Amino acid sequence: MTEQTTIAAISTPMGTGGVGIIRISGENAFSVADRIFKAYSSIKMIDSDGYRAHFGRVFEGEKALDEAICLVFKAPKSYTGENVVEINCHGGIFLTKKVLKLVLENGAVPAMPGEFTKRAFLNGKMDLSEAESVMTLISAQGEQGINAAYNLLEGSLSKKISEINETLLSTAAHISAWVDYPDEEIEDIDNNKMQYIINTAICGISELLDKYDSGIAVTTGVEAAIVGKPNVGKSTLMNLLSGYDKSIVTEIEGTTRDVVEETINLDGCILRISDTAGMRETDDIVEKIGVERSRQKLERAAIIFALFDSSNELTEEDYELIKLCKGKTVVPVINKTDLESKIDKEYIENELGKVIEISAKCGNGYNEFCETVTTILGTKNFDTTSAMLANERQRLCCEKALSSLRDAKSALDCGLTLDAIEICIDDAISSLLELTGQRASEAVVDEVFRQFCVGK
Ligand code: GDP
Questions:
Q1: CB of 145 shorter than 6 A to ligand 1
Q2: How many angstroms is it from 336 CA to the middle of ligand 1?
Q3: Is the CB of 375 under 6 A from ligand 1?
Q4: Deepest in the core among 9, 10, 302, 351, taking most CB within 10 A?
Q5: What's the domain count of the chain?
Q6: Could you tell me the distance, in angstroms and rounded to a whole number, from the CA of residue 346 to the centre of ligand 1?
Q7: Which residues contact 171 (CB under 8 A, 6 or more apart)?
């Protein structure tokens, strides 16, 4: 066991519920539990076998506070790899906090965010990318996301990275032996074989990087912004997509003065969607701030839904919007197609690409809209069983590995010495080992777990 202290935290959300769980992990977990919990069977947790549930009461001194069930897990067969007790009491906010306080007064210290999972990682129960998948699983918003995150937890990414790394490691070891021991009878390095190994690794990593954005769209979701001049139907579209009246719809221009946000699941594609204030020149100070925020949303969004009003000719504001959207991932949408068309569709298509025609009010064009968005974001037919990268840290490790492998390939193509090639391969290996946590610095590991919630 790597850690000495026994930690505790409430592992269920802070709210009123049927059950609240206080998790204790560490060498003294059983004795801490025995100081406040008495099983009706009189068995002590310290004497219990693992994987057992005991019904009893939680005591504050002599006073019984609640009936509870204690789950006992013995090291190393627990989530953290340490001795673990989970006290399942009734789920009142005050009650769970009170039980935690008793646990802390009787020998445990408060767990830091993600500390249970960090201990699982440090005790070899999972690698770093698997630990991160716990976070992805918790924050997954849809069924596809849950499937993808679960496969990560099961090691789909770790397995793929290890496969790539193993071939690179054996190549590096072969080069190293050949360079360092010229007198030994070591098999010559076959350039074609080395080229093949480097190319295969490049392909494998590129595949992961190519899928990154789609994977994020399936699991935790991407930012999407609905933009357009006032009254084009942004709020109506927002309400159509979210399935209820989230935004206020009126005929009065400038009603949405701030950004309204909602997370929606569009056929398995998770969008953190913003209905923005209508873009126009205004002297109203509040509306001005809203318009500025709309611009920021537009800049940051992974996908933009640029709305135009079919029943009117294009205005200065529309031309301005088209300029702002150019070069970005944008779906131009002509709304109000139930009304007589006066808009120059061809101009919009020439500037921004294929237009989707909808009537947000009647729901016409909804299917085509979904189809287009899920195709652009690559979530349609996304294979949740294959390996994917779950966050920016993992993506950067892959980018670094890819760059080193490309250097190795150029070194080989230019006929540089074998040790130069080996250095590049070693760099790639390091980046991949950083991804799985086998060679990650303490600072990186700390940063990963800081993003977790307390109790996980
Ligand atoms: P926003 O200012 O861009 O958010 O626009 P709203 O969603 O508030 O809509 C402005 C007006 O246009 C409201 O009266 C809506 O009922 C109307 N509207 C929105 N979408 C449509 C549509 O598809 N067809 C028609 N006929 N009217 C629409």
A1: no
A2: 7
A3: no
A4: 9
A5: 3
A6: 22
A7: 194, 197, 198, 425
Residues 222 and 328 in one domain: yes
Does residue 278 line the site of ligand 1, with CB under 6 A? yes
Asked if residue 246 has pLDDT above 90, the reply is no
Q: Which atom of ligand 1 is nearest to the CA of 364?
A: 23
Strand bridging mode 109-110 / 63-73: unpaired
pTM for this entry: 0.80
Same domain, 338 and 312: yes
User: Ligand 1 pocket, 251 CB below 6 A?
Assistant: yes
- Split at pLDDT 50, 70, 90, the class of 2 is very low
170, two tokens? 């054996």
Residue to mutate, 249, 262, 294, 343, ligand 1, most ligand atoms under 8 Å from C-beta: 249
Residue 118 lies in a domain: no
Same domain, residue pair 230 and 205: no
- What's the whole-number mean pLDDT along residues 15-39? 96
Question: What's the pLDDT score for residue 196?
Answer: 94
Contacts of 296 (CB under 8 A, 6+ apart): none
Q: Domain of 86?
A: 7-111
| 41-50, 100-109, 124-133, 447-456: segment of lowest average pLDDT | 447-456
389 touches 211 (CB < 8 A): yes
Residue nearest to atom 2 of ligand 1 (CA): 231
What is the rounded distance in angstroms from the CA atom of residue 394 to the CA atom of residue 388?
10
Query: Is ligand 1 within 6 A of the CB of residue 226?
Result: no
DSSP string, 202-234: HHHHHHHHHHHHHHHHHTT-EEEEEE-STTSSH
Quick check: 175 pLDDT over 60? yes
Establish if 126 belongs to a structural domain: no
